[in-house]
Design goal:
- Keywords: Membrane, Transmembrane, Transmembrane helix.
- This protein is mainly alpha-helical and 69 residues long.
- The radius of gyration is 32 Å and the shape is rod-shaped.
- It starts with 9 loop residues before the first helix and ends with a helix.
């Protein structure tokens, strides 16, 4: 009987199953890998902001060029 596993009672069996699940627990994929959409949104807004600043600078240079004539 020393080599045989004993049958577990209800509470002991639940505890063993919980321990087994904890050992193989993996976090949700969304926590490990950011969504590709989030990356694209960030770059989209950065690009929009850069284009806005380029437009403002371009208009200022264009206005100064014709104001000095």
């Amino acid at each position: 009987m020393a080599g045989r596993k004993r049958a577990l009672t209800g509470d002991a069996q639940q505890a063993a199953e919980q321990d087994e699940r904890d050992e193989h627990f993996l976090p949700p994929r969304k926590m490990v890998h950011k969504a590709e959409k989030e990356r694209w949104v960030k770059w989209f807004y950065r690009t929009l902001l850069a284009l806005f600043f380029a437009l403002v600078v371009g208009l200022l240079i264009w206005g100064a060029k014709f104001a000095l004539k």
